[in-house]
């Protein structure tokens, strides 16, 4: 896994040679022990009964709580203050006594949330995107968090036939490719990575030709990105000449009618899931319906109302709160995700799994588009950055009222300098390309909607 982690962090020109060497070893052998063990375990545990799942969660929670109390200063202080005794923890709802963790609290207490019993090198820098207008930095656990998460991901994809040893993907997400390239073959991921930032009609045609040549059976994407391709196919009739096995789509809310449009245009099933970089909750669709099974082995999930009370009834909307079993270097306990969902009225599923079922999840992501000077669209989801470039920015928001020009409104932190502007400009320009000019505008606060909600992009151009 070490090579993989280096490769992920390096700029593309360094990534290439490492990825080639890495590509010699068969893909599935590189995934490591944690991946393999978790994957095999999930193959069995997904059919456990309710008692077995609950028992597993109690054990995992107890380990995490004891570890956090003994090694993480933030939780030691918090549990003492609220009178929570980790040794007495016995039932899942005992956790109700622990106050919630929020993004603001993580940002204010980053150091105190880091476990003392791990080496510096065990902490992998991570960050949320800009979905709430402020990027939160945190750490995940080396040789653990990512491998474990990948095993869960593959397990849910296997519900529509994805085979981690053989299945190839087309990735249409947020990877920036070398200048002038519309796709690259990524040996490490065994996938054709396609550019999302220059989807003009002319380029889409070339991409479709390439897909017809490669014939990869799965498209891994955001609904908004694949919708651009579907729109082209609908308009021109120029589409895929082979059968897809599925569209794997995440990170955004799915709009009414969109699933049907994507499925009918590409003549395949769309499979979506809810997850996030903080890795507290993962819920993926069932092969027998479009409802979401919450993985009990991934973390402990709760729904809360706006007063912070736990919702146990079905059909009532609440905020998703998660406790992660994937990270001991910086534990997330009762973390408020700012995303909303409700338990399905009918909790019995034909597939035989006993995981809790959610109806669709209402996340922070709206599907918005930046319009280039050529008139093509760039999905705002692909503009999300998981790097440290916004560390000295308090809040930010994109604004557009002219095709080909995008303004970034920024509220600075006192540590912000001209260097930050240069780095942000450089990184975002790689994505926006030559057809969108990026302009900086420094402001004292960020515009909200009438309902007080933050929007990642204020789009004034009517399409
Ligand atoms: Zn099911």
TrEMBL record:
Keyword check for Ligase: yes
Gene Ontology MF term list: phenylacetate-CoA ligase activity
Alphabetical list of Gene3D superfamilies matching this protein: N-terminal domain of ligase-like
Keyword Ligase in annotation: yes
Keyword vocabulary terms for this entry: Ligase
InterPro entries noted in UniProt: ANL_N_sf, CapK_Type1_Caps_Biosynth
Domain of life: Bacteria
EC class: ligase
EC numbers on record: 6.2.1.30
Protein name per the record: Phenylacetate-coenzyme A ligase
UniProt gene name: paaK
